[in-house]
Amino acid sequence: MASSEEPYDEEEDPAVAELSEAVAPSSMRGIRACKRCGILKTIDQFIKDGCENCPFLDLMENPERCNACTTAFFEGQAAVMDPRVSWAAKWIRCDNYLPGVYAISVTGQFDREIEEDLENRGIRWRCRPAPSK
């Protein structure tokens, strides 16, 4: 029995195209979190590709900036495939970002210069200072 519907074309589906942009750490060793959005990648991935959610941080091909804008101090991980409909993405506040693996919480601080730049642009970030001892 022939169907009157056209065959499904993955390339024309915007949701599938966005999912193809999903980022996952290429290794379980040396994972770092972006201090702004919390996406998890290796330092090499941040240096090679930057942060897909935060291109204004200018991480690509800039190891010093990658070290300043990412941290190894994070708790938990959540793989988010469709951030727009995921309750977990809403809970960890990454529902406006690309699909990927995100930290549940991020500890660290941006350098004052970077914080001031983000504040001037009206951009919020997720990292929290480490608790005082």
From TrEMBL:
Matching entries from Gene3D superfamilies are given as:
3.30.40.210
What ranges does the record list as Acidic residues composition bias? 1-15
The Gene Ontology terms for molecular function here are: RNA polymerase II complex binding; zinc ion binding
Q: Does the keyword Nucleus apply?
A: yes
Coiled-coil region: none
Keyword annotations for this protein, in alphabetical order, are: Nucleus, Transcription
Intracellular or extracellular location(s): Nucleus
Pfam families per the UniProt record, alphabetical = Spt4
Q: Which residues form the Spt4/RpoE2 zinc finger domain?
A: 31-107
Q: Name one GO cellular component term.
A: DSIF complex
One Gene Ontology BP term is: transcription elongation-coupled chromatin remodeling
What InterPro entries does UniProt report for this protein, alphabetically? RPABC4/Spt4, Spt4, Spt4/RpoE2_Znf, Spt4_sf
- Family per UniProt? Belongs to the SPT4 family.
What name appears for this protein in its UniProt entry?
Spt4/RpoE2 zinc finger domain-containing protein
Q: Which organism's genome codes for this protein?
A: Grammatophora oceanica
